[in-house]
Amino acid sequence: MPSFPTYRPRRLRRTASLRRLVRETRLDVSQLVLPLFVRSGKGIRQPVGSMPGVSQLSVDEMLRDAREAERLGIGGVLLFGIPDVKDAIGSSAWDEQGPVHEAVRMLKRETPRLVVITDVCMCEYTDHGHCGVLEDGDVDNDATLELLAKEALSHARAGADIVAPSDMMDGRVRAIREALDASGFSNTPILSYAAKFASGCYGPFREAAESTPQSGDRRGYQMDSANIDEALREVWLDIDEGADMIMVKPAGPYLDVLQRVKQETGYPIAAYQVSGEYAMIKAAAERGWIDGERVMMESLIGIRRAGADMIITYFATEAARSVARDA
Questions:
Q1: How confident is the model at residue 213 (pLDDT cuts 50, 70, 90)?
Q2: Of 31, 81, 115, 281, whose CB count within 10 A is highest?
Q3: What is the dihedral sign for C-alpha 65, 70, 71, 74?
Q4: pLDDT above 80 (res 28)
Q5: DSSP secondary-structure letter at 224?
Q6: What pLDDT band is residue 137 in, cutting at 50, 70 and 90?
Q7: What does the buried/exposed string (b/e) look like for 182-204 if buried means 16 or more CB atoms within 10 Å of the residue's CB?
Q8: 105-136, pLDDT tens digit by residue?
Q9: Phi, psi dihedral angles at 80 (to 5 degrees)
Q10: Is residue 14 one of the residues assigned to a domain?
Q11: pLDDT tens figures, 247-299
Q12: In a domain, 293, yes or no
């Protein structure tokens, strides 16, 4: 390394134009994915109290947000469904007239440049709020696999570009891959929530998706936050079963996991900046404690710098506007 005064790093920091010219990590709007919560009905835009700016949406209202996302150049949307009816096995999850299926069909027709990703899980659809069927109060892993495959296949039939299992059941990627292939959807990619940690940052999402467990918690199937080697084993297992892309969730508290997964696998990596991360930035900004836009962009650049190829974030639309202003 050269030393001072020959080398003066501040020379290249003097102006915004110089800083942009030598910037090492860049956030492209096309790398952002906007999560959307969809329910049946018309004209519904029901705000989520713990997530300012986020709402449960009927399909017509969802389409308005999707069109704006497409106009801004955002890469895709991730759909979560809120059914009218919940039961013990989450049967609304594969109802082809349900809000997610209707939303997929509408998006493929009206916003063809957006990649449509569907969340594959049971928690929004079960009356007990867990990510699979219960047996004696515990989630029955193997009994859940068939249902997840059924849900994923129904999404593919509706036209989803990517299916994304988030349940953390062992073997679910293989079950979904086999079901898709057997039904003529061998070209439908799987984005696996491979390293999904049991986190305190999911609270606002559970309000938005109406998916809070009615008993117990999800630590028996989501990962312990202290474990990084186990995360790599989960990742390699899902790759072996047929995952095309890998997700680390949450993003901010697990940047070390994200970096290691990218370096060791070389696979396309998604990071989910979850509801609690979003809500904390929003709350602090509303109180005037931080510059909300600046911290938003700093957090997203940090996720990119750690190795994420795409970022699922509730800030997608705001961030896209910020990038456009800075261009």
A1: confident
A2: 81
A3: positive
A4: yes
A5: P
A6: confident
A7: eeebeebbbbbbbbbbebebbbb
A8: 999 999 999 999 999 999 999 989 898 899 98
A9: -120, 135
A10: no
A11: 999 999 999 999 999 999 999 999 999 999 999 999 999 999 999 999 999 99
A12: yes
How far is the C-alpha of 11 from the C-alpha of 36, rounded, in Å? Answer: 43
Judged by DSSP in three states, 130 sits in coil
In a domain, 17, yes or no: no
CB 270 within 8 A of CB 308: yes
6 within domain boundaries: no
What's the burial of 94, exposed, middle or buried (CB within 10 Å: 0-12/13-18/19+)?
buried
Tokens 């990742």, residue located: 235
Number of domain units in the chain = 1
The pLDDT assigned to 154 comes to 98
Query: Catalytic: 262?
Result: no
Distance CA 83, CA 91 (A): 10
- What are the CA-CA distances from residue 159 to residues 62, 77, 152, 163 (Å)? 17, 13, 11, 10
Which among 108, 150, 196, 262 is annotated as catalytic?
Answer: 196
- DSSP per-residue codes, 243-306: -SEEEEESSGGGHHHHHHHHHHH---EEEEE-HHHHHHHHHHHHTTSS-HHHHHHHHHHHHHHH
Q: Hey, which residues does 36 pair with through a beta bridge?
A: 79
Q: What is the CATH number of the domain that holds 284?
A: 3.20.20.70
Burial class, 239, CB count within 10 angstroms (exposed 0-12 / middle 13-18 / buried 19+): middle
pLDDT at 326 over 90: no
Mean pLDDT in residue range 80-104? 94
Neighbouring residues of 38: CB distance < 8 A, sequence distance ≥ 6: 56, 57, 58, 59, 62, 79, 80, 81, 82, 99, 100, 102, 103
Q: Out of 108, 150, 249, 282, which one is annotated catalytic?
A: 249
Q: 65 lies in which domain range?
A: 25-326
**Half-sphere exposure (Cβ direction) of 52: Cα atoms closer than 13 Å:** 11
Q: What does the mean pLDDT of the chain come to?
A: 95
